[in-house]
UniProtKB/TrEMBL annotation:
Annotated protein name in UniProt: Ferrochelatase
Example GO biological process: heme biosynthetic process
Location relative to the cell: Cytoplasm
EC number: 4.98.1.1
Xref: SUPFAM superfamilies: Chelatase
Residues at which Fe(2+) binds: H195, E276
Molecular function terms, GO-annotated: ferrochelatase activity; metal ion binding
Class of this enzyme: lyase
Record key words, sorted: Cytoplasm, Heme biosynthesis, Iron, Lyase, Metal-binding, Porphyrin biosynthesis
Source organism (scientific name): Pelistega suis
Biological role stated in the UniProt entry: Catalyzes the ferrous insertion into protoporphyrin IX.
Keyword ATP-binding: no
Gene expressing this chain: hemH
Length: 325
């Protein structure tokens, strides 16, 4: 039999527990990445260690506690489920699926070395971010290169840069929405909330904002027969700088005064539910919307390990494996 191919699904990372020390360790690693916070290194380390970690980490304890699942942090639980489901899908093929996180555990280096030990000379790196951003996708590719610097005999790598417009990804999102509407009825408005980025990153050439709007345009087209207006917004603003707009919470808080009293919100840029979707959107934004007079707020979950999404992911992987498979 020929050598197996390694398929490595990689998401961002999440604290090992909701203890403050684990949250601090996670934030420190993540926010020390110069691809994530593009401020002069010494200035930023001073702010991070002196202000951000001491104040933000304790505040996040309660937030993580609210969403924590039996198996751990939702981001990890859903990523594990995606890995297992994709491995099952490829059970009859010479493909080994592993998961890893860019920050923390499961460790990316261990996952790459583990795949090599299992005989994988070829590894496909799959970022669990459909839209490309330097602060997510590029930093992952940087890290893979950095890990490989220590190797004399490096594996043969392929990377998936983005799948914001992949028909199978769009069809999975559309199916998720349609299924939700079939069971619960259509809303007045569907808001697609993507993770935000500093405006400066986009001004410097990050294609992320355009990628998000491309996904939204295709999803709008797929759902056009429902005549529901579909809008785009950006969530999870961090720090004082200007971020790409409009902000999700601002949009939701304006809706009631514009006559929009029932809204569905979906987060298509997150392949798995996590703190930013479950706490910030499903809990926090629902409360903010209702405080301004909104009547009905429904959160449509992420694709997580939905069977149609796992089929789509297999298709996206196969497309990139090309001549390898
Ligand atoms: C400058 C700061 C940040 C940038 C840029 C950023 C981009 C970015 N992040 C995600 C996906 C996720 N982010 C998550 C949490 C999170 N993000 C930031 C900051 C930036 N993100 C912080 C400080 C945090 C921690 C929580 C908080 O303090 O609000 C998560 C969830 C992790 C979890 O444990 O559940 C995800 C996923 C994307 C896709 C993105 C750029 C496109
Ligand atoms: Fe983030
Ligand atoms: Fe956040």
């Amino acid at each position: 039999m020929s050598q197996p191919i390694g398929v490595l699904l990689v998401n961002l990372g999440t604290p090992a527990s909701y203890q403050v020390a684990d949250i601090r360790r996670y934030l420190n690693e993540f926010l020390s990445d110069t691809r994530v916070v593009e401020l002069p290194k010494f200035l930023w380390q001073f702010i991070l260690k002196g202000v951000v970690l001491p104040f933000r980490a304790p505040k996040l304890v309660e937030k993580y506690k609210e969403i924590w699942m039996d198996g751990g942090s939702p981001l990890l639980v859903y990523t594990q489920a995606q890995g297992e489901a994709l491995a099952h899908k490829f059970a009859d093929e010479n493909i080994i699926v592993e998961i890893a996180m860019r920050y923390g555990e499961p460790d990316l280096e261990k996952a790459i070395l583990g795949l090599r030990e299992k005989g994988c000379e070829r590894i496909l790196v799959v970022p669990m971010y459909p839209q490309y951003a330097a602060s997510t996708t590029a930093t992952l590719f940087d890290r893979v290169a950095q890990i490989s610097k220590k190797m004399r005999d490096q594996p043969d790598y392929r990377f998936i840069k983005r799948y914001a417009e992949h028909p199978a990804y769009i069809a999975s999102l559309a199916h998720k929405v349609e299924e939700f509407w079939r069971l619960n009825g259509v809303p007045q408005r569907l808001l697609l909330s993507f993770h935000g980025l500093p405006q400066r990153s986009v001004d410097l050439g990050d294609p992320y904002y355009d990628d998000c709007h491309k996904t939204a345009a295709l999803l709008r087209e797929a759902l056009k027969t429902y005549n529901v207006e579909i809008e785009v917004s950006f969530q999870s603003q961090f720090g004082k700088a200007k971020w790409i707009s409009p902000a999700t919470q601002t949009v939701l808080e304006r809706y009631p005064s514009q006559g929009v009293h029932n809204v569905d919100v979906m987060c298509p840029g997150f392949a798995a539910d996590c703190l930013e979707t479950l706490e910030e959107i499903q809990l926090g934004c629902a409360e903010a919307f209702k405080a301004k007079g909104g009547k009905q707020f429904r959160y449509i979950p992420c694709l997580n390990a939905d069977p149609m999404w796992i089929d789509a992911l297999a298709q996206i992987v196969k497309d990139r494996l090309g001549s390898w498979s």
